[in-house]
Structures are given as C-alpha cells and as structure tokens.
Design goal:
Shape: elongated
Number of helices: 5
CATH architecture: Up-down Bundle
Strand content: under 5%
Mean pLDDT: 94
Number of domains: 1
Distance between the termini: 24 Å
Number of strands: 0
Helix content: over 70%
Bound molecules: MU-OXO-diiron
Radius of gyration: 17 Å
CATH superfamily: Ferritin, core subunit, four-helix bundle
Oligomer: single chain
Structural class: mainly alpha
CATH class: Mainly Alpha
Length: 176
C-alpha cells in the first residue's frame, strides 16, 4: 500500500497534470488561430501527453486499491503578448512539474514507500526530456524573431509527431 501522504499528494498532482493539459490545449488553439500549424500540432500532442500522465497516476492509485478523486482545474491562460510567450510559459510549467514530481519522490522515500518512489522515476525521466524540448523550442523561437517559418520548419523536422510510444511508460487508466 502506498504511503498516505503520497496518495494525497499524487491526487493533487493528477489535478496539476489535467491543468497542464488544459494549458497546452489553450496554447495550441492560440497558435492554430494564428495559422501556425506545426506549433499548434506540437502543443495538441503535448496536451495529450499531459492527459496521459494524469491517467497513469489514476491507474497507479487504482492498482494500489485507492480511489482517486478527479479534481477540477483552474482556467488556463488564453491570451499571450506574442508568439514566444506561450513557449516560455510552457518551460516554466515543466520546471514547476519537475519540482513537484521530485517532491513526490522525496515523500515516498521518506515513508520507505519504494514502490511509489519507483513509480515516479519514469515521470522524472520524462521531465528531463520535456524541459530539454521546451528549452530548445524557446531558443529557436527567440532567435526566429518574426521569421515564424523557421520555428515551423524546426518542429516539422525535429518533432514530426511520430516519436512513437514508450514501452517503459506506466499503464494509463482507460488505456489512454
Ligand atoms: Fe506531465 Fe510535462 O508534465
């Protein structure tokens, strides 16, 4: 059985992952409205990944005999000063999530709950990748200034959307 504090913190994290999903949908829609289809597709895919993270956490609690509570989320930001701003926001969000997941690992370790600690390891690895991706994207976007085709080309080349599944990923509730 997972430690009680881990269960309640993981439940909070489920809400934050859904909030990240909503935020990335809002970012994708913003880019779609500006006819920047590669950026839009990239963030629609990121949104789905965040939903997947939430559902993996839901499944972990179910498997552990706990009943997760599906929380409501705060409204995402939908207006941005310029095309770079949503990427900067995304990078900040990923850094925050990394701290939150590290906090979950610390709670599990302190409670000698090594199964839960191992469960969150995959998410820590995922965060390293997401921070690297968003950092690269931010650097390209800042360099592109008004040449938006540069960043559209970068995404088409580096993140075409066929990265494939990760066989080591935890199972998600509902098979999502
Ligand atoms: Fe689920 Fe990108 O954190």
């Amino acid at each position: 059985m997972p430690a009680e504090q881990f269960v309640s913190e993981l439940n909070e994290q489920i809400g934050r992952e859904y909030a990240a999903h909503q935020q990335y949908v809002a970012v994708a829609v913003y880019y779609d409205s500006l006819t920047l289809p590669q950026l839009a597709s990239f963030f629609y895919r990121q949104a789905l990944e965040e939903r997947g993270h939430a559902m993996m956490m839901v499944q972990y609690l179910l498997d552990a005999g706990e009943t997760p509570t599906i929380p409501g989320v705060e409204a995402p930001r939908t207006d941005f000063d310029d095309v770079v701003a949503p990427i900067a926001l995304a990078l900040e969000q990923e850094k925050r999530v990394t701290d939150q997941i590290s906090g979950l690992a610390a709670i599990a370790r302190e409670a000698n709950d090594y199964v839960s600690e191992q469960f969150v390891q995959w998410f820590l690895k995922e965060q390293v990748e997401e921070i690297a991706t968003m950092s690269d994207l931010l650097a390209i976007a800042e360099r592109a200034t008004d040449r938006w085709s540069d960043i559209e080309d970068f995404i088409a080349r580096e993140h075409p959307g066929d990265e494939g599944g990760d066989p080591t990923a935890p199972t998600a509730a509902g098979g999502a």
